[in-house]
Design goal:
45% helix; 771 residues; ATP binding; EC 3.6.4.13; alpha/beta; identical protein binding; ATP hydrolysis activity; single chain; hydrolase
Length: 771
């Protein structure tokens, strides 16, 4: 690879002058550009830098949408934006492009710190925004970071100081502002709120106020959403005073009924269904649309989990997925990726993916539960028919919800067509659900939780004309879920519900050091009252599956019901002691004496050693040595006869054992002799090899039979008389002559020699054999 040539001082000066001239020219184009006069159709027609246009082209973004054409030129001039447009209209690029252009014109670098902050209400939407930014910003030198819940905080904190563009959720951003040392917002240029109406609601109110209080007031603020709020209180919280509205007049017309708020290519419909029949209709709908890609929205995560688990066991013939806010971040990310790439799949989800998420080619959006308001309905159906493509939506309304909710849709000029259910296509699954819940206690527990969560979701709704709590058929609804009866529900007040919603979106790290008072406000907790360590959290952690404390209690109660049938079960009963039945000595003794008297161990210590017993085949206990009765003894014969029989029996046993012992001793002796001879043979061979060396090629001759034990088996007399005190070897050459050697040869031609007794004899024998 060729080395890059270093620029000279003159060349660097010329390069800086060209860049400044280009930036000045770009600024002039921005000031002269009038969106009302110049109707741009492509991104290259807008006053954008070449690096941004090149990144857009490589990411296949060529044509501009209406919201992009109207908002980008105003944003480039530095005005605050309050923008709203239909779902799937390209709002993400409407604020990402001004962010890149702002930092490019300011010559932003990693040493300038954080330049832009983008806040999204959900993790999935923040991840999608980050992915789009990395695609269009490939030719820029800015660093971008994503901070969301479920990720490693320490990993993010170590790198957040070098980030120029930060994208994240409100809770995690506030956590880094409180904890990260290198994160400084004093030089922030732009603040962007994606899905601003969701970020400004009660759930993120305190968190967002804390974030904005740490930002400089001279920043530029951009607010975008499909359903925008124009509350002066909300805008004042963000210091949004001199701002331009883009698309908000259209939203006002939508609310007044003069403009449609959903895509024109979306085919909307509804059906009237009784609450107990909803799951039957949903299963029948999935069975008749097996080659479609659909999203089914439910009101709570408990319902999503229950419907997913039961339908998965009944196998409708299509891939099933589920997504809700109580899942781990890894599972949520994997589900999003798999659903985006799949073509024939059904996703059960809550409203966590109802806003801003761009799923490609969604054929159907099914709303099993009625949304809380029209804005939620618009966001849900907006997952289909995006960027001018075709799409369909279906909402299931109960007779109690139908008239009031359709009236609210008509006020926003949304008129879905009514569909009729073909009875031939309808299929009932109530019996299957009841069978599944009867077999599996885990599914039964999920069904109970799903029932409770739906009833509570209806109870806390503000629009009482649509959601009529008193008219819910609880028993029939419980039976449709497969439950034997409707579980008992403890309802919370509206104050408790608001407090729960506030705590749900609050930072968990702050909640660990705080507690809430009666008004729902967070108070600091004294650390001395109790600090929860990671070990405390580990031991308090519940199982992440459907098993929980409630389920364990159910299994325990079932086990207690079956105790009567278990013959091995022993129930312990504590009996009351009556003083009149106690010994007189025990009544007048001290407490220590009473304790000693009632102690089993202390009482046994005064009675000597315990007596051992044995049990016969009938289970009766007998002493180890039990005396025989006199009558039984006389029946067996006289004492002398029994004595002789006992002696004969024992002698016979001793003889048998003696024979076995002798045989074992003989075998051990023979084995010992064999090992001794083998060792002797090895020593002789080793001595020969040391003296003459081993030559495998020379032939070896053996005297005798070749078996050393046979050759040395005979013993002969000692050497000649007159031997000195230190006896010479009987096998030395001085003591052996030819006549003696001839006398020792037997008829078979084998030399018979005397068994060696000493080491000298063994050496002499070895020498003779070698000669």
């Amino acid at each position: 690879m060729a080395r890059k040539q270093k620029l000279t001082t003159v060349q660097r000066k010329d390069q800086r002058q060209k860049e400044e001239a280009y930036l000045k020219e770009l600024q002039n184009k921005i000031e002269e550009y009038d969106p009302k006069v110049s109707k741009a159709k492509f991104f290259k027609d807008l006053p954008l830098s070449s690096a941004t246009v090149k990144g857009l082209n490589e990411a296949s973004f060529v044509k501009v949408t209406e919201i992009q054409r109207d908002s980008i030129p105003i944003s480039l001039k530095g005005h605050d934006i309050l923008g709203a447009a239909k779902t799937g209209s390209g709002k993400t690029l409407a604020f990402l492009i001004p962010v890149l252009e702002k930092l490019y014109r300011e010559k932003w670098s990693e040493f300038d710190g954080l330049g832009a902050l983008i806040i999204s209400p959900t993790r999935e939407l923040a991840m999608q925004t980050y992915e789009v930014l990395t695609k269009i910003g490939t030719h820029t030198s800015f660093s971008a970071g994503l901070v969301i819940g479920g990720k490693d905080v320490k990993f993010e904190s170590a790198r957040i100081s070098k980030i120029n563009i930060l994208i994240g959720t409100p809770g995690r951003i506030l956590q880094h502002m409180d904890q990260a040392v290198g994160l400084s917002t004093s030089n922030l240029q732009m603040l962007v709120l994606d899905e601003a109406d969701r970020c400004l609601d009660m759930g993120f109110q305190k968190t967002l106020d804390a974030i904005v209080s740490n930002l400089p007031p001279t920043r530029q603020t951009l607010l975008f959403s499909a359903t925008q709020s124009q509350s002066l209180t909300d805008l004042a919280r963000l210091s949004l005073t001199d701002y331009k509205t883009v698309g908000t007049q259209e939203v006002i017309n939508e609310k007044n009924g003069t403009a449609a708020s959903t895509p024109e290519t979306l085919q909307q419909s509804y059906i009237t269904v009784e609450l107990p029949d909803k799951l039957d209709i949903l299963f029948s709908f999935i069975k008749s649309h097996l080659k479609s890609k659909m999203i089914v929205f439910l009101s709570s995560s408990k319902q999503v989990h229950f419907v997913y688990e039961t339908f998965r066991k009944m196998q409708p013939g299509i891939s099933l997925m589920h997504l809700h806010g109580r899942q781990k971040q890894r599972a949520r990310t994997e589900t999003l990726d798999k659903f985006s790439r799949a073509q024939q799949v059904c996703l059960f989800a809550t409203d966590v993916v109802a806003r801003g998420i761009d799923f490609p080619s969604v054929d159907w959006v099914v709303q099993l539960d009625c949304p809380e308001d029209v804005d939620t309905y618009i966001h849900r159906v907006g997952r289909s028919a995006r960027y001018g493509k075709q799409g369909k939506s279906l909402i299931m309304l109960t007779p109690q919800e139908q008239d009031a909710f359709l009236k609210r849709l008509q006020m926003r000029k949304i008129e879905p067509s009514k569909l009729n259910i073909k009875q031939s296509k309808k299929r009932s699954i109530k019996a299957q659900l009841q069978s599944l819940l009867f077999i599996d206690p885990e599914l039964k527990y999920l069904g109970q939780k799903a029932f409770i969560s739906y009833i509570r979701s209806i109870y806390i709704q503000k629009d009482k004309e649509v959601f009529k709590f008193d008219e819910i058929p609880t028993e029939e609804f419980a039976a449709s879920l497969g439950l034997p009866g409707a579980p008992k529900i403890k309802m919370k007040g509206m104050k408790s519900v608001q407090q729960s919603k506030l705590l749900k979106n609050a930072s968990r790290s702050l909640l660990s050091l705080s507690k809430t008072n009666d008004d729902g406000e967070i108070e600091k907790k004294d650390k001395q009252d109790g600090v929860r360590t990671k070990y405390d959290k580990m031991f308090e952690r519940k199982n992440q599956t459907v098993l929980s404390e409630h389920y364990l209690n159910i299994t325990k109660s079932q086990a207690n019901e079956d105790e009567d049938d278990d013959f091995m079960t022993i129930k312990r009963t504590d009996h009351d002691l009556k003083e009149e039945e106690l010994p007189e000595l025990l009544l007048h003794s001290s407490k220590r004496g009473q304790k000693r008297a009632l102690s089993k161990k202390a009482s046994l210590s005064t009675k000597g050693n315990a007596t051992k017993v044995i049990f016969d085949d009938d289970g009766e206990a007998h002493p180890v040595y039990e005396l025989q009765g006199e009558e039984d003894f006389e029946k067996a014969g006289s004492a002398e006869t029994q004595k002789q029989e006992f002696i004969d029996k024992e002698q016979k046993i001793l003889k048998e054992v003696d024979i076995e012992d002798k045989q074992v001793a003989k075998e051990k002796k023979q084995e010992k002799k064999r090992k001794r001879l083998e060792n002797m043979k090895k020593e002789m061979e080793a001595a020969y090899d040391e003296e003459f060396g081993s030559d495998e090629e020379e032939p070896v001759a053996y005297l005798g039979t070749g078996n050393l034990s046979d050759d040395m088996g005979n013993d002969y007399s000692s050497a000649e008389e007159g031997e000195p005190e230190r006896k010479k070897s009987r096998y030395s050459k001085n003591n052996d002559d030819s006549s003696d050697e001839d006398d020792n040869i037997n008829n078979n031609g084998v030399i018979e020699i005397e068994e060696p007794e000493t080491l000298e004899d063994l050496e002499s024998l070895t020498a003779r054999l070698i000669d």
